[in-house]
């Protein structure tokens, strides 16, 4: 009796600039069909050691071996790729259209068309850590804050372009927001405490591109938009805690946290104490 072929477990989300997929399997998989051609790149980082992978590009062997945890591969999907997962694996992959990469590269001061080299298994701890930070967003809708996703994808792509891009940057210009743009961005972010707004939307209100806005915001405030919003939410929580006896669970909901435990984790990370302890210490 024949048995059905093993299938990987796949979870995916779509951000403003890329599609993010976690793919894993506890067993080897049979050789797969050729991947569809498209004007995009696929960036894959291994979340655990991967013992056996065979890759073919254009019908010719391209790679045959293993990857350490954090091992990186970048493939141009204009080429024809086939792969054979010869052992268990767990990876996160980001698919990004070439026009998006070009837009990010332009904002970094890159001259001309950009292409990416394939590090073929080199370990990249920056990309690995960014991938780890993205994993909770794949677990459920309640974890998917648009601002956070956009910011993480931006950091991911900027690092890839700077580390593996082929074109040269035109200089080290450090853009900053004007005082009006900074005040407007903070006002918009404060009006969306749950993070239910994208970086694209805030950048558009400031008449800036997405990647330019992120860099200019960081240079002006010393924080990413998501870090600034998190600290702003904590300040609002403190005001609510000091105002009376409103249950912490209700404060969590009003300030855009998933639940009380989510608020407690973030609050303690920022302040060093739990909301309950902070309330006791500041009880007037």
From TrEMBL:
Listed Pfam families: HTH_18
Domain HTH araC/xylS-type: 183-281
Keywords: DNA-binding, Transcription, Transcription regulation
Alphabetized InterPro entries for the sequence: AraC_XylS_family_regulators, Homeodomain-like_sf, HTH_AraC, HTH_AraC-typ_CS
Name of this chain's protein: HTH-type transcriptional activator RhaR
Gene from which this protein is expressed: rhaR_2
């Amino acid at each position: 009796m024949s048995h059905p072929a093993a299938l990987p477990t796949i979870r995916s989300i779509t951000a403003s600039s890329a599609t993010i997929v976690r793919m894993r399997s506890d067993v080897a998989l049979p050789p797969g069909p050729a991947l569809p051609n498209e004007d995009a790149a696929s960036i894959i980082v291994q979340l655990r050691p991967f013992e056996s992978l065979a890759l073919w590009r254009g019908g010719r062997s391209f790679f045959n071996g293993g990857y350490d945890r954090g091992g990186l591969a970048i493939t141009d999907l204009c080429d024809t790729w086939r792969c054979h997962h010869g052992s268990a694996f767990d990876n996160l992959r980001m698919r990004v259209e070439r026009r998006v990469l070009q837009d990010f590269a332009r904002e970094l001061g890159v001259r001309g068309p950009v292409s990416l080299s394939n590090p073929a298994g080199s370990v990249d701890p920056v990309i690995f850590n960014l991938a780890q930070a993205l994993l909770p967003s794949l677990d459920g809708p309640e974890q998917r804050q648009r601002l956070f996703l956009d910011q993480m994808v931006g950091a991911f792509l900027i690092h890839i372009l700077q580390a593996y891009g082929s074109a040269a940057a035109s200089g080290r210009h450090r853009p900053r927001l004007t005082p009006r743009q900074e005040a407007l961005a903070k006002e918009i972010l404060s009006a969306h405490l749950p993070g239910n707004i994208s970086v694209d939307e805030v950048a558009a209100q400031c008449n800036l591109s997405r990647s330019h806005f992120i860099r200019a915001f960081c240079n002006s405030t010393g924080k990413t938009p998501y870090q600034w919003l998190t600290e702003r939410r904590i300040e609002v929580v403190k005001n609510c805690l000091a105002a009376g006896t409103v249950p912490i669970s209700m404060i969590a909901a009003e300030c855009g946290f998933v639940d009380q435990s989510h608020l407690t984790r973030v609050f303690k990370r920022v302040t060093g104490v739990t909301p309950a302890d902070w309330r006791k210490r500041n009880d007037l």
